[in-house]
Amino acid sequence: MNHRPNRRRSIGFTLVELLVVLAILGLLAGLVGPRVLSQLDGAKSKTAVVQIKDLEQAVELFKLDVGRFPTSAEGLDALVTNPGVNGWNGPYLRRGLPDDPWGNQYRYESPGRNGEVDIFSYGSDNAPGGSGEAADLGNWQ
């Protein structure tokens, strides 16, 4: 009576074990995934607020050097390239003009509707209005 254990049977996982593990992983992804994604969306809004503050500081530096804010026609590009004005001592942004976290350009108005200048993003939908991640973010908030 030679009783050798079946080597094929002792190596690896059974199909049932693999299916159980996949089901558990699927449940975890379904429960944790939406929470992680909502945190990422919130991070984009916070990043936009920080970038808008940086742009606002750069606009203030432009005003100190030139004696006025960039016009709406010059826009935020005046912070990185000389628009042909006396006193320009830029670039006023170290890494160039950033896009908002959703890949769109920041908007600039001078004079602004909410202050001397308005610097803002239309949010994830790149359209005025909206709520949540699609809400407008600006330096007046």
From TrEMBL:
The chain crosses the membrane at residues 12-32. It is found in: Cell inner membrane. GO terms for cellular component: plasma membrane; type II protein secretion system complex. It is a single-pass membrane protein. GO terms for biological process: protein secretion by the type II secretion system. Keywords: Cell inner membrane, Cell membrane, Membrane, Methylation, Transmembrane, Transmembrane helix. It holds the Pfam family T2SSG. Residues 35-140 form the Type II secretion system protein GspG C-terminal domain. Residues 122-141 are annotated as: Disordered. NCBIfam families: IV_pilin_GFxxxE (TIGR02532), typeII_sec_gspG (TIGR01710). Belongs to the GSP G family. This is Type II secretion system core protein G. It comes from Pseudazoarcus pumilus. The lineage of its organism: Bacteria, Pseudomonadati, Pseudomonadota, Betaproteobacteria, Rhodocyclales.
